Amino acid sequence: MSGDALLAVTGLTAGYGPVEVLHGLDFTVGEGEIVVILGANGAGKTTTMRAVSGMIPRHGTVEFGGVDISGAKPDAIVRAGVSQVPQGRGTFTDLTVEDNLECGGYTVKGSIAEDLERWYGVFPRLAERRDQKAGSLSGGEQQMLAVARAMMSRPKLLLCDEPSLGLAPLITKELFKVLGNLRDEHGMSLLIVEQNAGMSLALADRAYVLETGSIVATGTGDELLADDTIKEAYLGVVN
Amino acid sequence: MNLPVRVVKGSWQNWLGRVVLFGGVGLFMFRAMNEWSRSGLGLLTDALIIAIAVTGLNLITGYTGQLSLGHAAFFAIGAFTSAMLVTGKVWSPFFTDNIWTPGWTMPVAAVVCFLIGMVVGIPALRLKGIYLALVTLVFTEAVRALFKYGEFEGVTGGATGIKGFGYLPPSWTGLDGRSDLVKWFFWLSLAILVVVSILSAGLLRSRIGRAMVAVRDNETAAAVMGVNLFSIKTLVFGLSGAIAGVAGSLYALKLTLVDADIPIFGLFGSVTLLVALVVGGAAQNWGPFVGAMFYVFVNDFARGVGEAPSDAVILGWFVDSGTKINGLGGVTFGVLLILFARFVPFGAVGTMRMWRSKLVQVVPRVPAVAGVVDSRSSGPLGEEGSGSVDSTPSSIGAVESPGPIDPDRPDSPS
Ligand SMILES: Nc1ncnc2c1ncn2[C@@H]1O[C@H](COP(=O)(O)OP(=O)(O)OP(=O)(O)O)[C@@H](O)[C@H]1O
Ligand SMILES: [Mg+2]
Known about the structure:
The complex is a heterodimer of chains A (239) and B (414). Chain A contains 10 helices and 10 strands.
């Protein structure tokens, strides 16, 4: 698998100062695949995202498109084609919607006018609000903005950190439909870390379960959805 | 006619507003030059010089969100660079004569301050808020101590400073060498302020400008967008320092002397610049100008109160007529600042915009996206719309009306 995977992570350890949070993770994301990492609060989901995107010091190897990016800086990783939707959306509240999108295209050389129109086409509500301050958008709109903004850097792989956080179920459904479309219509690969097991596993091609910094289970989305321990821990279903 | 009146951005009404604003300020400057006394014009020039330095500070503190108490040091370095070059105290390669005319020392001051500013920007990578303020404060005092240091007396003038230089108006200006000196510095300062403001507005509209605000709003998100925090912070610290350095250079040439003990070269100066920025409006394009004017003229007024306070009615009950009270000017100024902070919370420019937006709102042209008709009825996102908690704008940045349409982008020039 890891031979032709788009993202191949082996033995990833990372943490903050003396505290090790991730204890050697192995996972892969294939081309055109949606992979979900399921984990409870504090499991290390955000830390995993930060380690992959180069935001914190890390050990182990991270290969992207066959190239070792373990030592690369965040901006180099974005340029290589890995983009991120940070937890809590990371909206630039004082900038307009359009400026937010243009920030997303920060690493792109040359004109991004076409990219803007393309993503406005996918997210028409953002087009209506292009000159509005992004801080005045609703939570759902801000999450859409964060996805569109991440797509502006023309990535091959999109990292999404708890995209469902703070969204009503209906909005989450809408959002996951959009994420599915990114795979189906735009050929994207996605790595999503989530607590919302029901909706994310339904979307996932494959999934991993992360517990206190270690991967404890893996399988296809449907397999894990059917798993009793998963049902109990993440869906609140008691058998 | 319903208020607020909506004016489309870029329409002739919008331009008319700008012309009236710039024309009004221009007219004020013109009349000041012709009708004001020498001391009045001198004070106005001081305000312009401070406005230049605050324009620099606005880039790093207002737009990039990095609190600096180090800008008096750039001001001092600019001032000493000019003083040392024009008086021939530093070695000029290849030339035995001193080739430095006062005007050419200004770009040198800018380059020197740019390089030093980049270095000072490095701590900003790890330090935030008051910790960064503390480091930059130490920088200010260290620079001041260095200029006073006895071993360097031959170059910096040590404890006595450097005297005996100046900048007479070049002949092409048509100004008379000595009698028009005040006017010359007034025009020079005004011209430099205009140039610096235009450059800074251009920077803010560029990709780098957006990255700066992104770093201020959410550093982590900016980094994952591929914004190199190291480059942005060091670059903007450098540019910001360079602008403050030019202001310092101008200040020294106007004053005709430098001395490390001049208060504006120390912590007092850094605080002055910061106060002017906050009073005028941080991250507002007119903020530095309005803040500097306020600072200089209100300070001057407060000093007047300190001169002969007992002529005032209420104070007269407590002290004999003609008594001077030391420090009363400072106290008056302090009280005025506190009142200002209480009643004008977003700085003068922010508050004026808030008032203006009740009368006139500049709205963007309608986006031309096909197939978008009614925003309130499209899918589940529409239903969430206005009711959600997240839809209220953040309180700090949102100086303007919290309505659905943002009247102005932060960097728009009107
Ligand atoms: N900046 C930090 N400094 C020190 N420790 C941190 C930091 N950020 C996270 N941690 C610790 O790392 C562990 C994992 O945190 P992480 O944010 O990765 O969890 P998470 O799975 O994303 O949780 P959540 O669902 O709440 O977002 C936690 O024990 C947390 O306390
Ligand atoms: Mg998290």
